[in-house]
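INPUT
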Amino acid sequence: MSKKIPTRIYLSEDEIPKAWYNLRADMKNKPDPLLHPGTLQPITADDLAPVFCKGVIEQELDDTTRFIPIPDELYDFYRAYRPSPLVRAYYLEKELGTPAEIYYKFEGTNTSGSHKLNSAGPQAYYAKKDGLTSLTTETGAGQWGTAMSMACAFYGIELIVYMVKISSEQKPYRKALMEAYGANLIPSPSDTTESGRKILAADPNTGGSLGCAITEAIETAVKTDKCRYVLGSVLNHVLLHQSIIGLEAKAALDNFNIKPDIIIGCAGGGSNLGGLISPFMGEKLAGKLDARFIAIEPASCPSFTRGKYAYDFGDTGQTTPLIKMMTLGNGFMPSSNHAGGLRYHGMNAILSKLYQDGLIEAKSAVQTEVFDAALRFMKVEGILPAPESSHAIKAAIDEALECKKTGEKKVILFGLSGTGYFDMTAYSSYNNKTMNDQIPSDADLEKGFASIPKIPQNG
Ligand SMILES: *Cc1c(COP(=O)(O)O)cnc(C)c1O
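OUTPUT
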């Protein structure tokens, strides 16, 4: 108990988890099933087979197996860059003058720069196991595309990445990195798919969107022999893979008998947040841990705090299964001046359910406040945080300052999902004060809500 807590708490290689934790197994109120958009019946493995790899489909539909073993060949992949450090933020605590203890789990130590590699590895592995030769995916800011490029290089699979056009123009170095790993980059919308050609015909100058890139990637996967599609967030199997974050964090804290009081993560599609909180939420559901869970999202894309709980499509082209989730509507477009990532219209189904049941709190922050927090953090902790991750920093600082007021010595754990080396354009606009905050009006949100399908399940 009285062991001095090191600044960086590392697990040994043998302590990397041998199985992922499937939180759904311990949820009494399970998330609603994915629905087939044509029949409105729960989706089956056969329905998903043309789009996803077999191993991934099994995991997506499994809400009863508590621990799912990590295959040996994949364990080798994880060992190349894990365990990731759990850091005691001594310097941030001092800077804030808070009695709180702050810890963060840092997922930015691999070359892709974020937690996304934790799911890219398994998805490339299952593709290889199915005898596939290529995969398609989309990328917005570029972290997922980079992670997938690395994983595909490792397992010898070809990869086509549809990168949101405006992002491919703004982030040439992301593009170069993916190409260096051997990926085939296509700015989206493109003339390589029917859906892309349709969008280009309607608006030749469009900068593209994530929803549109997803539609293109799925179309190509379905039309190509021995090819499937992979997605880096939102779906339940991604959250399962990301549980490695929470399992490692919990093992490291357990080694020092530390129990968190508040657990915080930024939320785009929900994978890093869900992965971090999973094992702790499992304990909370079992009555073994009394902790608060906080999701923080951008005020410009507020799916938790201002969204609707409804069945919606995962993409703008309305081709995916229907997911019961907190959503702004598949047609919602966040303001283009929003630099901080986390631009997805929906939220993972498990997290949406937990939110409905009052087990997760949600907050939003505007981007200038998020960058204020990022700078405060990086100046003392020495890590350049990703804009996405900086949302979590902002929420953690707020909680720590609350402890300063009340004098409570709470234990705060947050997810630092990645580094910001490829986000310097956003930092520049913060530095020269051209960054501004745009919060969608209720009328803006209504436009997005209008795209939520009008099916009996949505009342
Ligand atoms: C992609 C990304 C996110 C958001 O995705 P989630 O699925 O919500 O985790 C957050 N942080 C970083 C660094 C990312 O790359």
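end of record. The chain has two domains: 22-68+115-229, 83-113+238-451.
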